[in-house]
């Protein structure tokens, strides 16, 4: 049992930073989704539980982008997301 507890502890320590990467979309996917800003209005955590409420603002749509992808008109200018990791 002791070995399993140790492995579980190491695994959780390695995975923990990944779970709290709430800024991932602004760094990795900024150009793809046209993200202009990422405002985090709430960040709570207790042990392995965490909750983040964030508001993503998209850049203004250009005519070229609109011609290439007319459905971009249907995308909201602001996304509000709640991420909860249990």
What does this structure look like?
- Keywords: Plasmid.
- The structure is a single chain.
- The model is unreliable at 1-6 (pLDDT under 50).
- The chain has one domain.
- Strands 1-2-3 form a 3-stranded antiparallel beta sheet.
- It starts with a helix and ends with a strand.
- 38% of the residues lie in helices and 35% in strands.
- β1 and β2 form a beta hairpin.
- It is of the alpha+beta class and 86 residues long.
Please give the structural blueprint.
Elements: H1 2-19, H2 24-28, H3 30-33, E1 35-46, E2 49-58, H4 63-68, E3 78-85
Antiparallel strand pairs: 1-2, 2-3
Question: Keywords for this structure?
Answer:
single chain; 86 residues; alpha+beta; three-stranded antiparallel sheet; 4 helices; 35% strand; disordered N terminus; plasmid
Q: How many structurally independent domains?
A: 1
Structural class: alpha+beta
Measured distance between first and last alpha carbons: 24 Å
Shape from CA axes? elongated
Concise account of the structure shown:
With about 90 residues, this protein is an alpha+beta fold. The protein is built from 4 helices and 3 strands; from the N terminus they run H-H-H-E-E-H-E.
């Amino acid at each position: 049992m002791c070995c399993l507890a140790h492995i579980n502890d190491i695994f959780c320590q390695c995975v923990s930073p990944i779970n709290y990467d709430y800024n991932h979309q602004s760094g990795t996917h900024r150009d793809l989704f046209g993200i202009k800003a990422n405002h985090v209005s709430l960040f709570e955590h207790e042990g392995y539980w965490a909750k983040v409420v964030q508001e993503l603002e998209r850049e203004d749509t250009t005519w070229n982008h609109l011609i290439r992808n007319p459905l971009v008109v249907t995308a909201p200018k602001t996304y509000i997301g709640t991420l909860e990791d249990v």
